[in-house]
């Protein structure tokens, strides 16, 4: 009898595990296939991508789209390296600044009581609700007049502002989960508030900072609408704006666009993979409490 | 301080030089920098390679401060006008967009010799003249839609017999819009093969509608700019789109298509007849990009019920801003980019010239190339029927009110009469609000 | 006597306030002002003509505007709820994986690497009725012999847009909820196990309440962002055909830049901000409620 029950348990556990694997596989397929389709298209000639009847088994895979992209102007070339550098400078700088400002703000909201706190908090968040079209023209006017148009600094400022509310909110949420007595205990042990923050609270909130960082980076890396308005030459154009180089009045070079897209995706993917492990720091927190 | 003094001295010298000479003289614009906002995109870039020649000849420097496609440039120009930052000098322009910027660009006829202007196709100069001012000089990027078709379909004996039996006339590439419709319906075999397709959104839809209204003997606007397309000619035009859609002769998604989908559609070999732009001719016949390659026929665009050919056309050009500090140098650059030599160079990439003399060169160069000669014959005849968009500042705004109603009629949300009435009312209200009448 | 010090909290949030004032608040005041003028980009002098609430009245009386408004609310509601549910499911699925989880988590975030403009092009081609991936697959598998007009049909067009939007954004929910799952204290879970709770009970009464703040954070952030799906929609359908997918953002963008009627566009923008404020405050209330349940209210 006991053996039987045990057996039933094992069968049930096994079934659940299989169902789990299958569901996970399907979910991951839906997530990955449209993306992998882009990667595949970057290696194919247009005649195969838009084929009917469709070409299911990839044939004639080549690097033509990549060669063309790095080629000269007029032969399909776009200034990829310049776009890449611009994107990198703008995204990394704006992410770091947004994280610093956001951590300060998030800490203030999580740890201090002050008048009008909720109102300020909501006010900050509402800045994200502002439609881009209401901002883009005045921003253009201000930046055109101050010479910030088509510069890295201009776009960095905009992205910091875009990311700060989100960063504050996210980090605030993580700080809130750390019991204040942890830091207080450290202060009693002779740490200053500053030391207590870096030694006790920051490591625990690292997961929050890491995910806020990923979000901020990806937002800046992928933003198009404002970038297309505030940049205009290779001096500051970012990669999403560069995608538009593959479209013209009548045509679109889909294979070429996919090739540039792949170059956009890879660094973001690598960075996400590297930062992943800091998310696990959240687990440590669970251990601390237990 | 010192540096800027030198610079202003230099530009003063350059200004002095203006009255003296018209063709580029070595060092004429030494030290002058021309800021330019140019259209980007593969087929437009080759010309910019020639800018170095002009720089060497005149001593000026060209600083390309913006390179985008026309829709993005249009947004930027409007933002610039709003911000008052229009002291850059040379901008890419397009006949369909040009009427929207009444204050931005200067009258080039003051800076360019009349002889030189006479070298362009007169109709282009007419379309470039807005409110009596020559706002741009056209480059070798002229577009008027002609008829592309798959040759084998028209050579097939079974097709010929079946078509003649059903419609009572011979199967040859369509001369009229009615024949176009008959044949498209005849060839269609959804979902694997379609008779034709059309631009179903944005200015593409309004533009196609516009040219068919004209071909049917109507017009979009009366002389006082009140809407005139809610007419028999307009109804006939809209009905044409609707008939094709209802018969399943066009892909069901055609109302979501714009030029790139249309090009990809014909290149996929699943479309029989296609009214499309000259720029595609090379692409359609290239086995790398098109399944129809080797089987492409090109002929002049069809006529409407009034015996007028369709011919909504557009072309690219360059303009000089009113606030440019050195308009002579800027105009010299524009002349250079639209000169005979530049047009010959640019049209060697397959685009169409806007200078009479260059047409002859292009045709002569194509000799021996059967496909290219057929294409050029069609383009050349097609160009004689070309007409630009209505010359009002509010054409794009009107287009944005018209195309959703065209779509509504095609998709059956509204009848043809209702849709045209609604579009006409909306345009009328818009014109009133803008103080046109 | 000690000098009165600037409070620490103010020092800490000051940089955030400055940058947001500079980049958002000041431009916003300009937009607000221009919504009371017939401001047309190509005629800068129109900025100085005051016409009162004309633009607002025009918007409020416009059927096109309200249809876009309603459709936007519909899109928000459907997309957000589905994204939340799927994101939760995905997070739970991934959290159960023990080996290779880091790679799996990265894969899960794959769609977040795609710029919205790219997502727009991607799904425009995938849903193309003639040569698109979906129809080709369905026809090859023999599931249909029709060309389904994904981007045109009344319901399918909205579906396609929502699908593209969900594809690109479900990951945001999943990763936030996953971070929340990792932060759950272990002892209540173990206590529940000892007390003999079923997995469902444990999930319902311990895991879920703990996750709620994270879910609301994600919901509120996304409810503001989903309105920025403008890039995707603009490229996929641009509000068409026949305004079937017209959202506030495509309508406002076209009016402001293509028609150059910035004054009117801003008036519509301000009306729709009201909607965004409503959603934000709604989720913020929920967030605070969820937090006080956990004793973490500020």
CATH topological fold name of chain C: MetI-like fold
* Helix proportion of chain A: over 70%
Return the CATH class of chain C: Mainly Alpha
Give the ordered list of helices and strands of chain C. Answer: HHHHHHHHHHHH
Overview features:
heterotrimer; B: 437 residues; alpha+beta; D-Maltodextrin-Binding Protein, domain 2; five-stranded mixed beta sheet; three-stranded antiparallel beta sheet; 19 helices; 12% strand; disordered N terminus; C: 298 residues; mainly alpha; MetI-like fold; 70% helix
Question: How does this model look, in words?
Answer:
The complex is a heterotrimer of chains A (290), B (437) and C (298). With 290 residues, chain A is mainly α. In chain A, 51% of the residues are buried. Chain A folds into two domains: 67 residues, no CATH class; 212 residues, MetI-like fold, CATH 1.10.3720. Chain A starts with a helix and ends with a helix. With 437 residues, chain B is of the alpha+beta class. Chain B folds into two domains: 205 residues, Periplasmic binding protein-like II (D-Maltodextrin-Binding Protein, domain 2), CATH 3.40.190; 205 residues, Periplasmic binding protein-like II (D-Maltodextrin-Binding Protein, domain 2), CATH 3.40.190.10. Helices cover 47% and strands 12% of the residues of chain B. A five-stranded mixed sheet of chain B has the order 2-1-3-10-6, with helices on both faces. In chain B, strands 8-7-9 form a three-stranded antiparallel sheet. In chain B, a hairpin with a 2-residue loop joins strand 4 and strand 5. In chain B, helix 10 crosses helix 11, helix 10 packs across helix 18 and helix 15 packs parallel to helix 16. Chain C has 298 residues and is mainly alpha-helical. Chain C has one domain: MetI-like fold (Orthogonal Bundle). Helices cover 70% and strands 0% of the residues of chain C. Chain C has twelve helices and no strands. The relative contact order of chain C is 0.14. At the A-C interface, helix 1, helix 4, helix 5, helix 6 and helix 7 of A face helix 1, helix 3, helix 4, helix 5 and helix 6 of C.
What's the layout of helices and strands?
The complex is a heterotrimer of chains A (290), B (437) and C (298).
Chain A (H helix, E strand, L loop, with lengths): L1 H40 L4 H4 L14 H7 L9 H32 L5 H10 L5 H15 L5 H25 L3 H9 L4 H30 L2 H6 L8 H5 L10 H26 L1 H9 L1
Helix pairs in contact in A: 1-12, 3-12, 4-7, 4-9, 7-9, 8-9, 9-12, 9-13
Chain B lengths: L1 H17 L14 E7 L2 H7 L2 H8 L2 E8 L1 H14 L6 E5 L19 H5 L3 H7 E2 L2 E2 L2 E8 L1 E5 H5 L1 H11 L9 H11 L14 H14 L16 H15 L12 H9 L5 E4 L4 H4 L11 E4 L13 E8 L6 H11 L2 H8 L8 H10 L4 H15 L10 H16 L5 H18 L4
Parallel strand pairs in B: 1-2, 1-3
Antiparallel strand pairs in B: 3-10, 4-5, 6-10, 7-8, 7-9
Chain C lengths: L7 H27 L19 H7 L2 H33 L5 H8 L7 H11 L6 H8 L13 H29 L3 H9 L4 H27 L4 H7 L11 H11 L3 H32 L5
């Amino acid at each position: 009898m006991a053996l039987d029950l045990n057996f039933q348990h094992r069968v049930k556990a096994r079934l659940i595990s299989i169902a789990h694997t299958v569901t996970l596989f399907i979910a991951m397929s839906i997530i990955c296939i449209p993306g992998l389709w882009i990667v595949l298209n970057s290696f194919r000639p247009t005649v195969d991508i838009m084929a009917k009847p469709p070409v299911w088994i990839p044939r004639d895979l080549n690097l033509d789209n990549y060669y063309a992209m790095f080629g000269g102007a007029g032969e399909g070339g776009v200034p990829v390296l310049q776009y890449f550098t611009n994107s990198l400078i703008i995204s990394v700088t704006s992410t770091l600044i947004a994280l610093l400002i956001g951590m300060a703000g998030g800490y203030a909201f999580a740890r201090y009581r002050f008048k009008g706190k909720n109102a300020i908090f909501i006010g900050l968040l509402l800045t994200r609700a502002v439609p881009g079209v209401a901002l883009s023209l005045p921003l253009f006017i201000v930046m055109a007049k101050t010479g910030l148009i088509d510069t890295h600094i201009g776009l960095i400022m905009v992205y910091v502002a875009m990311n700060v509310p989100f960063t504050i909110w996210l980090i605030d949420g993580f700080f809130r989960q750390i019991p204040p007595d942890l830091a207080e205990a450290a202060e009693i042990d002779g740490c200053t508030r500053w030391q207590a923050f870096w030694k006790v609270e920051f490591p625990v909130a690292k997961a929050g900072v890491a995910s806020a960082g990923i979000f901020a980076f990806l937002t800046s890396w992928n933003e198009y609408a404002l970038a297309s308005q505030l940049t205009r030459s290779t001096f500051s154009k970012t990669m999403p704006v560069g995608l538009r180089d593959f479209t013209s009045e009548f045509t679109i070079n889909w294979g070429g666009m996919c090739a540039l897209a792949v170059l956009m995706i890879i660094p973001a993917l690598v960075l996400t993979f590297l930062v992943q492990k800091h998310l696990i720091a959240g687990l440590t927190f669970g251990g601390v409490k237990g | 301080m010192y540096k800027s003094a030198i610079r202003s001295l230099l530009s003063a010298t350059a200004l002095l030089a203006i009255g003296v000479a018209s063709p580029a003289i070595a060092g004429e614009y030494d030290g002058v920098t021309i800021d330019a906002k140019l259209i980007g995109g593969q087929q437009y870039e080759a010309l910019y390679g020639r800018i170095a020649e002009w720089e060497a000849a005149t001593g000026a420097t060209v600083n390309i401060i913006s390179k985008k496609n026309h829709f993005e440039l249009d947004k930027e120009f409007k933002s610039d006008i709003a911000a008052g930052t229009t002291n850059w000098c040379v901008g890419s322009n397009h006949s369909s967009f040009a009427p929207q910027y009444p204050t931005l660009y200067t009258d080039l006829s003051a800076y360019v010799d009349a002889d030189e202007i006479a070298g362009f196709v007169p109709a282009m100069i007419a379309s470039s003249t807005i409110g009596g001012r020559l706002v741009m000089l056209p480059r070798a990027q002229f577009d008027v839609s002609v008829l592309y078709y798959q040759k084998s379909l028209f050579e097939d004996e079974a097709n010929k017999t079946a078509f003649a039996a059903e419609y009572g006339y011979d199967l040859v590439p369509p001369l009229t819009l009615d024949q176009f419709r008959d044949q498209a319906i005849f060839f269609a075999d959804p979902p694997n093969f379609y008779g034709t397709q059309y631009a179903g959104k944005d200015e593409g839809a309004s533009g196609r509608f516009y040219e068919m209204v004209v071909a049917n003997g109507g017009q979009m606007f009366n002389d006082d700019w009140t809407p005139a397309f809610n007419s028999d000619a307009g109804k006939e035009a809209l009905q044409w789109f609707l008939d094709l859609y209802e018969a399943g002769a066009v892909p069901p998604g055609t109302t979501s298509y714009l030029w790139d989908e249309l090009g990809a559609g014909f290149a996929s070999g699943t479309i029989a007849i296609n009214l499309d732009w000259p720029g595609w001719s090379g692409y359609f016949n290239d086995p790398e990009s098109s399944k129809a390659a080797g089987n492409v026929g090109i002929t002049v665009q069809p006529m409407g019920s009034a015996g007028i050919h369709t011919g909504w056309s557009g072309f690219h050009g360059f303009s000089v801003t009113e606030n440019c500090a050195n308009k002579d140098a800027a105009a010299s650059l524009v002349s250079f980019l639209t000169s005979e030599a530049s047009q010959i160079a640019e049209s060697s990439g397959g685009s169409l010239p806007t200078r009479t003399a260059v047409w002859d060169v292009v045709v002569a160069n194509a000799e021996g190339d059967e496909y290219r000669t057929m294409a050029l014959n069609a383009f050349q005849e097609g160009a004689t029927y070309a007409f630009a968009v209505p010359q009002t500042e509010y054409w794009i705004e009107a287009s944005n009110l018209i195309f959703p109603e065209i779509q509504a009629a095609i998709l059956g949300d509204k009848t043809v009469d209702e849709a045209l009435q609604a579009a006409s009312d909306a345009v009328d209200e818009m014109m009133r609000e803008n103080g046109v009448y | 006597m000690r000098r009165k010090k600037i409070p620490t909290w103010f020092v800490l949030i000051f940089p955030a306030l400055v940058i947001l004032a500079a980049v958002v608040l000041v431009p916003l005041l300009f937009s607000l002002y221009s919504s009371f003028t017939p401001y047309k980009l190509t005629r800068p002098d129109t900025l100085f003509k005051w016409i009162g609430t004309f633009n607002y009245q025009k918007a409020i009386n416009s059927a096109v505007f309200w249809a876009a408004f309603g459709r936007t609310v519909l899109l928000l509601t459907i997309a957000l709820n589905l994204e939340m549910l799927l994101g939760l499911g995905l997070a739970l699925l991934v959290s159960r994986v023990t080996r290779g989880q880091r790679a799996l988590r990265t894969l899960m975030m794959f769609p977040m690497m795609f710029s919205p403009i790219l997502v727009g092009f991607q799904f425009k081609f995938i849903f193309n009725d003639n040569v698109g991936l979906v129809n080709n697959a369905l026809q090859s598998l023999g599931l249909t012999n029709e060309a389904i007009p994904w981007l045109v049909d009344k319901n399918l067009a909205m579906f396609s847009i929502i699908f593209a939007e969900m594809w690109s954004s479900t990951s945001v929910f999943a990763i936030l909820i996953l971070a929340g799952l990792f932060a759950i204290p272990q002892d209540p879970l173990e206590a529940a196990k000892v007390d003999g709770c079923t997995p469902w009970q444990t999930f319902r009464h311990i895991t879920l309440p703990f996750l709620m703040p994270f879910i609301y954070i994600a919901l509120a952030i996304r409810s503001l962002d989903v309105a920025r799906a403008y890039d995707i929609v603009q490229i996929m359908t641009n509000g068409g055909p026949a305004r079937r997918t017209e959202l506030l953002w495509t309508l406002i963008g076209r009016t402001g830049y293509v028609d150059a009627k910035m004054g009117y566009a801003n008036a519509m923008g301000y009306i729709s901000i009201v909607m965004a404020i409503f959603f934000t405050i709604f989720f913020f209330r929920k967030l605070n409620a969820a937090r006080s349940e956990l004793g973490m209210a500020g």
